[in-house]
Amino acid sequence: MNALKTIAYATVMTLSGSAFAAEETAATKALVADAMTALMINRDVGSIDTYFAAPYIQHNQAVADGIAGLKGLAAQAIAGNPAFKYEMVRIFADGDLGVAHGIYHGFGPAPLVSFDVFRVSHGKIVEHWDNLAPLVGPNPSGRTQTDGPTDVTDHKETETNKALVADFVNSVLINGAFDRMPEFFDGDAYLQHNSNIADGVSGLGAGLKALAEAGQVLRITKTHKVIGEGNFVLVLSEGTISEQPTAFYDLFRVENGRIAEHWDVIAPIVAADKAANGNGKF
């Protein structure tokens, strides 16, 4: 194969790969949206057989593993619970992984903000991770835990945006390279949805300092997944707050090559011997 043919072949393969990835992402997003609508919004427990398949791996530490565990949860907490309601706020996907960001009502005394992550295989959902935290009032800048843009844009920038966010989390949040902060933000412009922190990069610094002074030292130690579509990138990581094992789900919106907005759900990690399944949080 001569040089021109080699270049042409590589170009075709790259385009084919990109087209396949886009098709898989779209199919995953549609499946997750349909499944969440049927099961969580319409409360159709029978839809589990339509959208989910065994072996189903459950990472919610309060739910038993497998399809049986999911059906048990659905029968008790959804179909058998008049107070149950789910609000889907935003949804996006990355290959075989789909993400739903929303609010559950009726799972406990307070509504719960959640990120649900699903893995799809052969047209069915076969694995689930999530992080849930109580819904509270607006933060110091008046933003809630879920408001803000919901449309996925800038699809061609997906991999670039994922790399930017991964670099920020690993370099700054994990390894403490705070001198690199200007590389990731447009000055002080940064919209914040964490319930305790105000807008701006300066607000982020002040908020982390206030937590430390209150004895709540936050440390992120390991990144498990970076899931992105266009302008949205979700990072699943673990660490500690005041030495207690903690799961961090951080959603970033990227605009013009800089991190522009942030939502999160932070929740404790249950000890393995107290979990309802043995699959681990991540």
Main traits of this protein?
2 domains, Nuclear Transport Factor 2, Chain: A, five-stranded mixed beta sheet, disordered N terminus, alpha+beta, single chain
**Backbone shape:** globular
At the fold tier of CATH, the topology name of the largest domain is Nuclear Transport Factor 2, Chain: A
- One letter per element, helices H and strands E, the order comes to HHEHEEEEHEHEEEE
| Terminal residue distance | 45 Å
Q: What is the makeup of the main sheet?
A: 5 strands, mixed
Radius of gyration: 20 Å
Explain how this protein is built:
This protein has a five-stranded mixed sheet. Strands 6-10-9-8-7 form a five-stranded mixed sheet, covered by helices on one side. The chain has helices at 3-41, 48-51, 66-79, 158-174, 201-213; strands at residues 52-58, 85-94, 97-105, 112-121, 124-134, 191-192, 218-229, 232-241, 244-255, 258-268. Helix content is 31%, strand content 33%. It is globular, with a radius of gyration of 20 Å. It has 282 residues and is an alpha+beta fold. The chain starts with a helix and ends in a 14-residue tail after the last strand. It has two domains: 3-134, Roll (Nuclear Transport Factor 2, Chain: A), CATH 3.10.450.50; 155-274, Nuclear Transport Factor 2, Chain: A (Roll). The longest helix has 39 residues, at 3-41. The chain has five helices and ten strands; from the N terminus they run ααβαββββαβαββββ.
